[in-house]
Amino acid sequence: MAAAGCLELVVVRHGLTQWNIQRRYQGQRDIPLQLPEAAAGLMRLREVLGSYRFDTLYCSDLVRCRQTLAHLVEGREEAKTVSFDSRLRELDFGDYEGRTYAELAELPAYRAWIDSAGEQAPPGGESAAELRQRLSAWFAEVLDGLPRVRAQQNPHRVLVVTHGGVIRELRRRFEGIGFWEGGVGQAEGRRFTFPLDEREQWQCSSSLAVPAPASGAL
């Protein structure tokens, strides 16, 4: 039996910030976009997303994501209905926020955190398991709010503006890759497709880069 409905989840990372340029851990610090440096990436992403019509919009409540979303949907009807959700925030890096790899590299606790792929929480911060827990709760609510798409032939499209660590975790979950392997650049992301099968279950069937790389690679 063919799938009874389809969800497309377009998840993008915020644009460039000063701390991105300086390679500092941002975490849940409320750092704004670095303009005009961020403009080129935002414009490219806006052009790519211009061909999509989104049914639902979600955004981290941190300012760099709010600014990114405002740029992406300026003048669009969808901009009127956005859910800002703290569960879409970046991983809380605790004592490491505002610091660089070079500043931390010799610390045993930092090396242990890196070696654990985030499973061990940084001092004063959040573990990967805690990130998974809040993202799972958020995604369950997204799916619970989609009964109307089951009779539709066109996909229900959801735009999510969030952070690099969140996208890493979603890729680990939906693509089955390692946490450190799932990085994306600023103003880039993934498009996940979820058909709804006859058992009323949503399963990720594909994950593609957004914007698509020039090489055509996934």
Description:
With 218 residues, this protein is of the alpha/beta class. The chain contains 7 helices and 6 strands; from the N terminus they run βααβαβαααβαββ. A 6-stranded mixed sheet has the order 3-2-4-1-5-6. Strand 2, helix 3 and strand 3 form a beta-alpha-beta unit. The chain is globular and about 55 Å long. It starts with a strand and ends in an 8-residue tail after the last strand.
List the helices and strands and how they pair.
Layout: E1 5-13, H1 18-21, H2 39-49, E2 56-59, H3 63-73, E3 82-84, H4 101-104, H5 108-115, H6 128-144, E4 156-162, H7 164-175, E5 189-196, E6 206-210
Parallel strand pairs: 1-4, 2-3, 2-4
Antiparallel strand pairs: 1-5, 5-6
Helix pairs in contact: 2-3
